């Protein structure tokens, strides 16, 4: 969000990112580098040590980028996202052999966190970047991805059990944090942790619909018993006419649209 | 109603009275004035005004709001609306009638032109010299095929200017419908040119021809009255010469005859003989059809006058005739040899007026509706009608006399001429059926019936399940008549070949096909003499494999054997009977083969009875099946058999799954989502899947199963409140379930193999591999979860791409699948129809990413469900052609598609949706498909992602071209036409990515370029491992990365190249902005798409798969 402000080309360092040593400069993408700044302070992306990289081709991986940037200094961490809206979504990920979120295959935004802030400055004096580390693409990559899905389920079960233990503990901890017991005066604290009242959109929608139907039905019932007094009948007739008129107008506009499309030429 | 409509709004005292009046009015509603009610309307209007004034004060300001809106409508309009609702089906219907009639109305200038032309023509005729023109008879170019029966030295013909020349037919009655039907002009030749005995032996006809031909020659010399002058056969009847002239936009057709009193009409009663052959001693053979020919000419004048007197005053009747004529014209019943034309409609309407079923004062809608209703129940083939009011004419034949000689009877006003003499009884029955259908369509409130009935063209090639075209060849047909015709018919039909052949062939086919067909109709076209027959199958009997004849010891068996020749065999049946019978195909033959049993019967009968060999016949039924037919199977097997086998295996497997009762949560249901489960997949796998012993297929690719394709499905577990509120945890619990299922399955059903994956299980059952995922509604809810951007605190639930995808795959697709599966069971041609349609799209390099498969499925489903304007076809080919036509003509911009399964959506719902659609067209996707299995808060999810407007335009254009190709070649449909339709042009693309054949998925249907893969062996390892499809994965990555700048086209049926089209945006230079710099390079501080780098990217992404990239320079 913080980057939506108009930026000038001069703020960026532009360098060519080559896929492999043999690649021609001409065929390489230009990546755009800049020191990362954010209004929010983030422990995972300290602004003094973080480099923002734009226009990273989709096949690049953390490992392949590591090769590019480690020449200027030790890299602590690399994060790749496809869109700023996902910037703060990055959940804490439990390292897993089996369950990993994949980054969408799109041009990416990268955050390179160096160990030292001096590395950040070093990069701006470069004129050329080393190529990416050898990266699996094409048939090899797809074969690898396919093979990864063929798992030994005993291993997987062990990992799941481990995770669930951890997860349950976490839940337990969260629960304990919520002080749901009544305090001395008998007050129960309702915190933001409990999340308040949740209602999914579909449910709300369904409820609304139901209410509307009920309202309609009630109206209809009312109409059925009406007609005792003359004025009611009059009102009804009036209503009927208004509806008729509305229908007439609808029909007319429909017809107009059809006429415009020369719908009435039979052949 | 009209009188009171305006009144009771204001006058409270009217209420009580009104109910009485309503009753009365209902009684007279049917014969009420509509258009002609000018007088009563005026009265109402004035009454209304006075009342209004009175009540105004009373109402006071109580209803000010209403009043302002009320008063926009005049009393007249209100009347009209009320009236429309009662007299015209609906207001909308009435307005559409008015619009259409306006559209086809002749302009004043056009009328003037015709009148002027007629005057000049008359002048021209009068100036011609009185020449002896008998000599022309021997001229080489003489337009009649018929020759004089005997050289008559006394044959003399002199041109004399006509006694009279007048307009007749639709232009004279102003019931023409603005199509290119001809303007009819009739000439009365002076009596002196004829002898009293000229009605015998075609002499009259020859004289007439000479007369017209002479005029034609002179007209050509003059050359100012119009071009393209020729003498041709009217209604394809070789004994009906007519002079045709094209003048401006009109075709003018000139007939000639004699004054009506010249021949006594009673000479032409059906049973008399008027063709006297020399060698036949006593000529008593009745010549009913020849007689009709002469009678027709002699009664033109009389009938014209009669019709004019009956209807010219009644605009509503004339409008009704016009509407009915349009209805007929759209169905092409009015072309070719003695078709079902306006003349018949008009006469029948007059009959209805005479018997007081219709009153000329009715609205034209009511007249049309009554016509359909009454004609639909008419029995002109059993008990004809007569328009003649006189009873005691000399020698007047009775209706029964007519029935003795003609199939269908409607006698004209003269009492002698059956105007349906040549009408095919089959066509009559077809029209009758269509009438009843029309009523059904009218009564369906869910659709715009007017469009369906009057404005939708249904060309002949879309009307029939099967279509037979026999090349016209006089010699063959002469031979047929020589061999098969009776002596009487040979005289009666002398020189009119077509009706005679028609009678012979149709009789045989009708007998041979019997209950298998609901309609068997000779189809003809103007000025084309090919013998065509359209067949509509009766799904109940058409696929019977056995023709059971009489018991072999009974006398009828002889006749049966004669009719069926050596096909007939004696068989013993299960019930013990031993009868003559024919077996057309084996009981276990594929469905596609059973569909063409009728083809076998027809070709056999044509050969057996008429010696018409296969080369002369084009039989349209299964030409397009080739694109979905298995190439490694000798039989005509389409995708249906393989789908069925897969479904059976799936059902078996899901039973096993549901029986695993000691799982933590019970499995409630296992539902298929793959197109195979609704019979619509183009390439369902063969039952060939197996496990590998080694566990390794080759060095690099691992996996346990070998299969062509895995089939997807979902598992639903019993509800439980224990699922975590966290996506990651949920994933793991699901995986735990997979492991559990796998363990239980292996112990309980060891013959079923199972493979656990982190996000699914694969199960091998009966040589098919299924890929199943557990679904849970909570996933969708969790996907919708997001933190509010406003306060970073509260959780919002909002539909997004991911939640939509989940809902689509987990909820809607299984639902749709079961609906479509049901539809296929109801109409077994549904599946293959969709498969051909999909294949057609694929062939245009439009795969399911650019045009979702579900869109095709739903569009076809709509055609099958709505049952009109034609009933669903039993033959996938016809279904496919109708799909093309639908695609080519449907206006997706203005109309939405409603797929209403079981009529679950009511008219109100649809209306509401439609109003919304019209108002906010921009918020809806280019194709908007609403179905009754959509979730009610979000209609049209099926086409939201794709197709884009550009793809839609392109597909529609391609459909239009395809339809044109089919229309032009329908009577000679062969492999080349099929290839034309299923081969795409490679022009206009920017890049081609050529792929390595080794990695392209092998299919066992004919390939994109109409060559076959070599029969695929399962041990050809790479291609089959776990159903992996490298090209598909490649395309996914390309599209994900470059969707903003390029469109990728690919034919998934074995094609070895991907075509790429850059989007417009690629050429633009943009101002620098950090949010728009993806894929760009900097040039002069501006951004431009870095094409070189992208080409390199493609190489990198498709490493190993790409053979080369070809750049097209433009």
From TrEMBL, chain A:
Domain (RRM): residue spans on this chain: 51-88
CDD domains: RRP7_Rrp7A
SUPFAM superfamilies named among the record's database cross-references: RNA-binding domain, RBD
Gene Ontology CC: one annotated term: CURI complex
Alphabetical list of Pfam families matching this protein: RRM_1, RRP7
Coiled-coil regions, chain positions: 197-261
Residue spans crossing the bilayer: none
Keyword entries, A-Z: Coiled coil, RNA-binding
Biological process (GO), any one: rRNA processing
Any one GO molecular-function label of the UniProt entry: RNA binding
Residue ranges annotated for the Ribosomal RNA-processing protein 7 C-terminal domain, each copy included: 148-267
Protein family: Belongs to the RRP7 family.
Protein name (database record): Uncharacterized protein
Native species: Chironomus riparius
Lineage: Eukaryota, Metazoa, Ecdysozoa, Arthropoda, Hexapoda
UniProtKB/TrEMBL annotation, chain B:
UniProt keyword annotations, A-Z: Chromosome, Nucleus, RNA-binding
Record-annotated Nrap protein domain positions: 183-308, 317-457, 461-611, 623-824, 827-983, 986-1109
Biased composition annotated in UniProt, kind: Basic and acidic residues: 57-75
Subcellular location: Chromosome; Nucleus, Nucleolus
Membrane-spanning residues: none
Gene Ontology molecular function, alphabetical: RNA binding
Main subcellular location: nucleus
Cellular compartments per GO CC: chromosome; CURI complex; small-subunit processome; UTP-C complex
The protein's assembly and partners: Part of the small subunit (SSU) processome, composed of more than 70 proteins and the RNA chaperone small nucleolar RNA (snoRNA) U3.
Protein name stated in the entry: Nucleolar protein 6
